[in-house]
Design a protein that fits this description.
The chain is an alpha/beta fold and 514 residues long. The protein has 20 helices and 16 strands. The chain has two domains: 4-227, YjeF N-terminal domain (Rossmann fold, 3-Layer(aba) Sandwich); 231-504, 3-Layer(aba) Sandwich (UDP-N-acetylmuramoyl-L-alanine:D-glutamate ligase), CATH 3.40.1190.20. It binds ligand NAX and potassium ion (K). AMP binds at residue 445.
């Protein structure tokens, strides 16, 4: 296949958040999470049979999350392999997948299942812990938060006190999957069977005495899931709001664009940003464009710049204005006449805010691009050539390599638009597959710029901001086209943004009302 080799470093460890993202994106690619859980549990059972061939009696201790779900699957497989299996559940699972596997075990009359939701109920099962030849720890995995609560802490004590070797599912319970820290106590496993890639904490200095031997098992996550943009990527963006929030807390975007000839472009950027969940989107535009923007919509605030186009005398004003904003988006509708390219160069070099560079601003900076950890370029193929001097290659794999290389050279994020959008920060690559040929209509790129700028206020990771922006832009286009066919405009996309974002983003209110 086309991309795994160049992009995925197979020996890389993974954080619990990255694992969450990959798992959701595998589902987006059509691999159901229930299948991943089945593969995980089956891999644990296989390892138990393979590593402990003399074992006849297996105790599986299951938490209430998906780690417990893996445990129930393992129990079913071990039972099928002819072993004597007992299962202790620390309560009934709440989530759908673990619940389904719990129910499947409950129906097996050959498996003894007990629920113990309190330390006392667990202690009553102490002889089960002493009875086992092998104990499977499926209490907590990557979803652990904070110090162990009860009955989980007692379950860990009982497992550690039992003489049988312990096999940890994904992570020894009690061990932090990201840091390897143990707050209070953790299961001391003889063997840890972890899934897809080693979780970072498992490789930490002090973790070894808890992890024991480490086995990494594939569970059917395709390499594409590592690079595709999908619903999982929303986990990198924070859409939550505090109950006592005030105007401006959720992002302020300044759009520098427009000219006598082009007044629509900066409006698309600003309106898309507003629909993406920022509080303020202000346009700084040459007078005719500023006037048109104000007349068009009461949602838009426009600061006029004297004259028909951006020129050097506006630079100080724009830089002063930028101080009040979280992100500056520059380019759409500026044109390349007169002093505009020089003004763009000045602003890009001196602005101290996260920056999205699009359209004519990319061309203006072509040959001497400005880099920075919070700078994003959003070129199409032609603009990519203006930026780098080279045509983007046609094949996806080569494209991904080229974008990564140039992002690294410039020291910024590049989002190259196309049939598949390719984004990189010089290290990681993300590929977006949403979108439709109906989106060739003018303005859809401006919408993407607005989305990118808005999402940069929701994360410190500009690659993810750009990637999720491309994903939302493409889906908004697909949904507009589903209704209107090849007759959509950029405004139709903007209208679709809220419903697309709400489908995937968590929009919690995070603090109690005052
Ligand atoms: N992400 C993936 O791709 C896959 C994940 N799988 C399994 O799913 C696991 C993650 O599942 P979840 O996200 O449901 O998380 P976990 O099952 O690790 O833990 C979540 C549960 O533990 C409770 N809990 C959290 N912290 C606690 C604490 N300190 N004391 C007591 N209880 C605590 C929560 O209330 C919740 O019920 C992985 O470790 C792995 O075993 C597998 O099914 C395969 C696929
Ligand atoms: K575990």
């Amino acid at each position: 296949m086309f991309l795994s080799v160049c992009i995925v470093d197979d020996m890389e460890a993974i954080s619990s958040l990255e694992m969450y993202v990959v798992d959701r994106n595998a589902e987006w690619l059509g691999v159901p999470r229930l299948v991943l859980m089945e593969n995980a549990g089956a891999a644990v059972a296989r390892n138990v049979v393979g590593r402990f061939p003399g074992a006849r009696r297996v105790l599986v201790v299951c938490g209430t999350g998906d780690n417990g779900g893996d445990g129930y699957v393992a129990a079913r497989h071990l039972h099928g392999a002819g072993l004597w299996v007992r299962v202790v559940g620390l309560g009934e699972p709440r989530e759908e997948l673990a619940r389904a596997n719990f129910e499947a075990v409950r129906r097996l009359w050959g498996v003894e299942l007990a629920l113990a939701a309190t330390p006392l109920e667990l202690l009553a099962l102490q002889d089960w812990f002493l009875w086992a030849d092998v104990i499977i720890d499926a209490v907590l995995g990557t979803g652990v938060r904070g110090a162990l609560r009860e009955p989980h802490a007692t379950a860990v004590d009982l497992m550690n006190a039992a003489p049988a070797p312990k096999v940890a599912v994904d992570v020894p319970s009690g061990l932090d999957p990201d840091t390897g820290e143990v707050r209070d106590k953790a299961v001391r496993a003889a063997l840890t069977v972890t899934f897809h890639k080693p979780k970072r904490g498992l490789l930490a200095e002090g973790a070894r005495r808890y992890v024991g031997e480490l086995v990494v098992e594939p569970i059917g996550i395709p390499p594409e899931a590592e690079v595709v943009v999908g619903p999982g990527d929303f986990a990198y963006l924070d859409f939550s709001r505090r109950a006592d929030a005030k105007k401006g807390d959720h992002g302020r975007v300044l759009v520098v664009g427009g000219s006598l000839e082009y007044s629509g472009a900066p409006m698309y950027v600003a309106l898309a940003a507003l629909r993406s969940g920022v509080d303020l989107a202000v346009i700084a535009a040459p007078e005719p464009a500023a006037q048109a923007a104000k007349a068009y919509s009461p949602d838009i605030i426009a600061v006029p710049l004297e004259g028909p186009r951006l020129s050097l005398r506006h630079v100080e004003k724009v830089l002063r204005l930028a101080e009040k904003f979280d992100v500056v988006a520059i380019g759409p509708g500026l044109g390349l006449e007169g002093e505009t390219p020089d003004a763009v160069k000045e602003i890009a070099a001196r602005v101290k805010k996260p920056l999205v560079v699009d359209a004519d601003a990319i061309k203006a900076l072509g040959g001497s691009p400005v880099g920075g950890p919070q700078v994003v370029y959003t070129p199409h193929a032609g603009e990519f050539k203006a930026l780098t001097g080279v045509e983007p290659p046609r094949g996806l794999r080569e494209r991904a390599e080229a974008v990564r290389e140039w992002a690294g050279r410039i020291g910024a994020v590049i989002l190259l638009k196309g049939r598949y959008d390719v984004a990189s920060d010089g290290r990681r690559v993300k590929i977006n597959t949403t979108g439709t040929p109906a989106m060739t209509v003018g303005g859809t790129g401006d919408v993407l710029t607005g989305l990118t700028a808005a999402f940069m206020t929701k994360t410190r990771d500009p690659l993810e901001a750009a990637a999720v922006a491309a994903f939302v832009n493409g889906l908004a286009g697909e949904e507009a086209a589903a209704q209107l066919g090849f007759h959509i405009t950029a405004s139709d996309l903007i209208e679709k943004i809220p419903s697309v974002v709400r489908r995937y983003a968590r929009e919690d209110i995070t603090s109690p009302r005052p």
